[in-house]
Amino acid sequence: MFSVTLAPKLPYTGAVLTLSLDTSSRGGSVAVLRDLAVLGVVSTWGDEAYSSRIFRQLEFLLAELGLKLDQFELFAVAAGPGSFTGLRVGLASAKAWSEAYGKPVAGVSALEAVAAQCAYPAAWLVSVVDARRGQFYGASYRADAGGELRLEGDECVVGGDELLKLVKERASDGEVAVVATEPELVTRLVEPAGTKVFRASNVLAPWIGQLAVVRAKQGTLSDALTLDANYVRRSDAEVDAKGR
Question: What would the mean pLDDT of 7-19 be, rounded to a whole number?
Answer without folding.
Answer: 63
